[in-house]
Amino acid sequence: MNVTVSSSVRTLILGIDRSGRIVQHDRTAPKILARTCDDLLGVHLNDITAQAHGGAAGAGPARSGDKERDAVGTLLEAVKSEREGNAVLTVALANGGTAEAVVTAKPMQAGDSSVAAFVILQIPVPSAERFVDPALMRDMLLRDTFTGIDDTLDFSDLAEKLMNRLVPAFCTAGDLLVLESLVGDNEFPAHGPDISHPLRRLAVAHDQKDPAWQAAFPTGEILRYPPGSPYVRCIESGKAVLEQSFSADAARKLARAWRRKPVSDLLSDVSILMLPLVAKGTTLGFFCCVRQPGTRRFDAYDMEMGMEFASRAAIFFDNARRYNREHATALTLQRSMLPTGLSAPSSVEVRHRYLPGSKLVEVGGDWYESIRLPGARVALVVGDVAGHGVRAAVTMGRLRTAIQTLAMLELPPAESLQQLDELMHAIGQREPHFATCAYAVYDAVTGECELAVAGHLPPLLVHPDGRSELLSVTPSPPLGVGDGIVETTRFAIEDGSLFVLYTDGLVESKDRDISDGLDRLQKTFGPGSPQAPLEDLCKASLDGVYSDAQRDDIAVLIAKLRRIPEDQRVCWTLAPEFPSVGQARCLIRDPLKRWGLEDLIPVTELLVSELVTNAIKYTNGEVLLRLVLESDSLACEVHDSSPALPRVLQVDREAENGRGLHVVSQLAARWGARRTHTGKVVWCEQTLPESVIEAMAAAAAIELTAEEAVLALPSLRTLSPA
Asked: What 8-state DSSP symbol labels residue 141?
């Protein structure tokens, strides 16, 4: 019969019959219990207790005996009921002493065997006898220690598992500390550490689970040890340091350095062995092993055994560091490829969801964008690069960067996708790739949307009354495939409509047809959905896809499209004559006063003069002047029928013309030009005064119009941050 033995608990196994008499025992039982080998068989469980040997002297022997008999009776009742029983018995030991043993009775169904149950006794080892057998310690410490942690890559988990092997097999208490840079930055030390390098405690253990050790040496603490201490000698030298008896004076110095008085009592007269964690010639940290007074103190053989343990542990810590660093690098790269924030005009609300198809890689080839454009417009984009994992993510990152650049250049959606197509062809020369994309630009002033699609699923438009439709667009091949022409479709959007862009992973899987997925999507955005919070709609759109283990990456972009309120936009049509320049200056004054922007009138008049003059000079048709008040800016746009974009000219000092755009670039916060299907637009933006921005934010919170906000400006300032 084999026995499992630990350094702090001895385990005995006895076989008993249904009456509680011992019919079998392991070979170590007579050496531990106060019974010889011949005298142990046939005796009752009550007869091995301290009371049966007269061990319970003093007050209440009868009461103590009754207590022992009650515990044994409880065990036997459990055996007869064929269930496991547990009790604590005070047993008599062969050395004349007693010990509190945790006893477990496990019933057996052995047919005709006389053994009705096995009784397992766990008896604490006396302190003086602990750590005496070096062969037993080596076997426990090194044989099976690393078989159960070979796949552990988390620092905290690894540290806890290692400390649970050291305590109680090798020491009564201990902790594990590593360089803070190893955990915090996942960096391998460039040179040997010294006392200036902070350490972090990853784990602490005590064989009796004494809370005082956890309080005095808290897990997760970042600290430095005082110069000259054995801890510093260990980490600077990279060699084991043995203190057979840590003096009370040294313990007090350490307690004063940390301003932690209990440390003095816990470390006085203990035996300490410091075991460095050395990988690739560099010390990463150390184990601090403690044997309390009353146990055998550390010696040279313990030092050799401990260093073998620490050397193996250092390999696991180095592996964990390399894995964590590679994992953190991959996540940083991947997450940097996804948008951190979506921008849109103040009247447009946008929400998104992204769900990677792989549990190992947190980003794939799907992407989404919401980019605020000048003139209260927004670019809404969703795309999907073929494939999965990091390769698809890298291509996705290139396309995202390109689409952001193209959006800032204010190219029309179809032209932007043509440029992306050329980029995909160039990428495909090195590594075959293709992608799909849907690109829409919504104008929150006119309520018009321009949409271009390259091989992508059609967007879903949900009308304010709950009717939904998949928009019909001219089909075009995916980006990087063929030489198809991408066309732009224009349509009007009702105020309060939902515009839903998504990738195929949302509506298609290996066990679901795409038509079924599209039907499910339309049902999700049924009656009442335009009035629902967008966050709830994002969650509802993903219902049912989390359980699909073989799903594709999913990106969803939902926008609630509203026009800029009428009191925040004005538009005038001007004749293509130079007197219209003065007329334009007069027209803008009333709306600016109404919006509380009197201070901007002089600069705005000058900007409007330059833009209108430029339009009249180079076009024959009517000129459209538009002012748009946003939450943080005032946009001025001049539309004309000429497709030629203006250029900033380099003029001589004596020249009388050609400085108009120079003036605009100096006075406006930013300016630009874009082509439209009827001509072009030249625009400029001015930043609003802080007081007006605060007033408009407060007005939006209580749903006031722009004019009401201006009238209430003094009182609204009290509602806004100073």
From this structure: I
Lowest-confidence pick of 364-368, 428-432, 639-643, 694-698: 428-432
Start-to-end C-alpha separation, the chain: 81
Per-residue burial over 670-699, b = 16 or more CB atoms within 10 Å of its CB, e = otherwise: ebbbbbeeebbbbbbbbebeeebbbbbbbb
pTM: 0.63
Say how far apart CA 399 and CA 383 lie, in whole Å: 9
Helix (H) or strand (E) holding 303: helix 300-336
State how far the Cα of 192 lies from the Cα of 197, in Å rounded to an integer. Answer: 10
Question: Does the pLDDT of residue 189 top 70, yes or no?
Answer: no
Single out the residue of 146, 50, 60 nearest to residue 89, CA to CA.
Answer: 50
Predicted confidence at residue 141, as pLDDT, reads 82
Q: Which two tokens stand for residue 160?
A: 């806890």
Tokens of 563: 């026009």
Distance CA 344, CA 443 (A): 11
Other CB atoms within 10 Å distance of the CB of residue 176: 29
Which residues sit opposite 270 in a β-bridge? 246
The three-point CA angle 273-150-316 to 5° equals: 45
The pLDDT mean for the chain works out to 84
Pairing mode, strands 222-223 and 241-246: unpaired
Could you give the residue ranges of the DSSP H alpha helices within 127-210?
134-138, 155-169, 180-184
Report H helices in 36-179: 37-40, 61-80, 134-138, 155-169
Number of Cβ within 10 Å of residue 180's Cβ equals: 17
- What confidence score (pLDDT) does residue 58 get? 36
